[in-house]
TrEMBL record:
Gene coding for it: LOC106588989
UniProt keyword terms in alphabetical order: Disulfide bond, Membrane, Metal-binding, Sodium, Transmembrane, Transmembrane helix, Transport
One CC-aspect GO term: plasma membrane
Disulfide bond residue pairs: 129-139
Protein name, as recorded: Sodium- and chloride-dependent GABA transporter 1
Length: 586
């Protein structure tokens, strides 16, 4: 029992929390997705709906996750159990979603590290068409051109050397053993970065969160000196004002900010649970959100300056090279590096940057899983395994095993299918999270939490966003996705079979299904009439009494949290027993 933590670990300083949160929010998607979505959504005009939705959705939602995490001092599962027992499944759905993403997300890092290792050779292996993996009669040393029907050498390296891609998801082929070794190496690196919890992660993020900005800045300085770079930047930023009247542009802006900032996974909530009680969560929420959006826009300059240069060199139009996702990172940009002086150096720095961006996001996903296990089963597990580090090791090994199907020969099809299902799942978990916190738990209770932390309640703007704007925005994304649903494609030609989309919905249910299951478990486990069960199930177990006009001290709140969670059965009416003694949240 001496090995059990006496109180919750806290960040060594505010910088570690900020860098961890920024590192989680700023991921590979900021580099390979936002620039494409921006130019296709109207260029510079897209920034208007994007920044608008950042203010109306991203900042309020990050603020509310920070509030709940910092006040309850628990991860998403335990937090929702005490906030609204009926909706405890929301916390479980968040952890399951993080678990699924962590299991397949390292596939991208496996590809990145593979390219990183091959960046030391001269010439770069994706430059020429005379390698054993090439199809010489269909290979071009130049970028793909629709008029010639030839594949670029970089595209063939990605498909036939890295992936050894099969014809479809029906044939996944065998494991790519060299990728298995790389995946195992990545999980080993992750384990040694997170095995001490926030004590080790908080130190690593000083490098992994800041180094990508150094590389982005160096790439921009290098790119803007190249011919054609300005054309690429102008293509990225030139406003198409007519796009502002199209509803799908606003939906795309909302979806981009949701996917980018990472609400709905429980990671921000979990990281905030390690804060000191009086940490300024509003200031931190604004810093994290603004840093995320600024990085996306800055990455757009970097990506399109390079694309403009390549279009100039290959005598192509910029839009012919403007792609998103893996095609940008593993096909277009490797081709750009092959034409630059000191190409090995730029390739190495670029893929090292992507590695850092991906690792930061994985840190948070592993942290939320570890927080769930320790909050829910900590004492029992530690008595069996003796050390918390073994819990982290088992989690890493399990997610490593679950990620193996994605590095088979047909693993890229599985990867895209999982990514597709996660996009749907995230919208559902985010919607239930906002509805639970704002409508069931209540904005007035959230206001009490904020007042207890900051000494003053949130203003009308945040309350309106929590109550109306954020839920409606998520519903709009879901409705639009259903109305505009189209068959799932890989590339431009491969159509997924119907059963594969059925599998995607099963994966979605593995996460979202915990919400109705949790509600049923809560209602069936109570006694009394249906109305009494429902009323008790939506009554918070957490106490919000003793709110004063100034923030409580850290020691006072620690005593408060210990007394709350030391109770094996907290009365559901505890919080309501003396509302008259509370300070008015207004």
């Amino acid at each position: 029992m001496d090995r059990l933590p006496r109180e919750r670990e806290t960040w060594a300083n505010r910088a570690e929390f900020i860098l961890s949160s920024v590192g989680y929010a700023v991921g590979i998607g900021n580099v390979w997705r936002f620039p494409y979505v921006c130019f296709s959504g109207g260029g510079g005009a897209f920034l208007i709906p994007y920044l608008t939705m950042m203010c109306l959705c991203a900042i309020p939602l990050v603020f509310v996750e920070f509030t709940v995490g910092q006040y309850t001092k628990r991860g998403p599962v335990e937090a929702f159990i005490n906030i609204c027992p009926l909706m405890k499944g929301v916390g479980v759905a968040m952890v399951m979603l993080s678990f699924i993403v962590a299991s397949y997300n390292n596939t991208v890092l496996t590809w990145v590290l593979y390219y990183l290792f091959h960046s030391f050779t001269a010439p770069l292996p994706w430059q020429l068409c005379n390698a054993t993996w090439n199809i010489p009669e269909n290979c071009s040393s130049f970028m793909e051109n629709a008029t010639t029907h030839l594949q670029s050498a970089t595209k063939q390296f990605f498909d036939h050397r890295l992936l050894e891609i099969t014809e479809g998801i029906e044939n996944v082929g065998h494991l790519r053993w060299e990728l298995v070794g790389i995946l195992l190496l990545i999980w080993a690196v992750l384990f040694f970065c997170v095995f001490k919890g926030i004590r080790s992660t908080g130190k690593v993020v000083y490098f992994t969160a800041l180094f990508p900005y150094v590389v982005l800045l160096a790439l921009l300085f290098n790119n803007v000196r190249l011919p054609g770079a300005l054309d690429g930047i102008l293509f990225f930023l030139t406003p198409k004002w007519n796009k502002l009247g199209e509803i799908h542009v606003w939906i795309d802006a909302t979806a981009q900010i949701f996917y980018s900032i990472g609400v709905g996974f429980g990671c921000l909530l979990s990281m905030a649970s390690h804060n000191k009680h009086n940490n300024n969560i509003l200031r931190d929420a604004m810093i994290v959100t603004l840093a995320n959006s600024a990085t996306s826009i800055f990455a757009g300059f970097v990506m399109f300056s390079g694309i403009g240069y390549m279009a100039h060199v290959r005598h192509l139009q910029v839009e012919q090279l403007a792609v998103e996702g893996p095609g940008l990172a593993f096909v277009v940009y490797p081709e750009i590096f092959s034409t630059m002086p000191v190409s090995q150096l730029w390739a190495f720095l670029f893929f090292l940057m992507l590695m850092c961006l991906g690792l930061d996001s994985q840190f948070a996903l592993v942290e939320v899983m570890g927080t769930f296990v320790m909050d829910s089963f900590g004492p029992k597990i530690l008595l069996m395994l003796n050390y918390k580090e073994l819990v982290t090791l088992l989690l890493c090994f399990l997610t490593f095993l679950l990620g193996l199907p994605c590095i088979t020969q047909g693993g890229v099809y599985i990867f895209q299918l999982l990514d597709y299902s996660v996009g749907i799942t995230l919208m559902f978990t985010s919607l239930f999270e906002v509805v639970t916190l704002s409508w069931i738990f209540g904005v007035w209770r959230l206001s009490i939490m904020v007042k207890r932390i900051l000494g003053k309640p949130p203003n009308v703007f945040f309350k309106a966003c929590w109550l109306v704007v954020s839920p409606l925005s998520i519903v709009a994304i879901l409705v639009t996705a259903m109305v505009q649903h189209s068959p799932l494609l890989y590339g431009k030609t491969y159509l997924y079979p119907a059963w594969a989309e059925g599998v995607a919905w099963i994966i979605t249910f593995l996460s979202v299904g915990w919400i109705p299951l949790g509600a049923m478990h809560e209602l069936l486990g109570r006694k009394g009439t249906c109305l009494a069960k429902l009323k008790a199930s939506v009554t918070p177990r957490i106490t919000l009494e003793e709110v004063c006009n100034v923030p409580v001290t850290e020691d006072q709140h620690q005593d408060h949290v210990k007394s709350l969670y030391s109770l094996s059965e907290v009365s559901p009416l505890h919080e309501e027993k003396d509302r008259g003694d509370m300070c008015d949240p207004e």
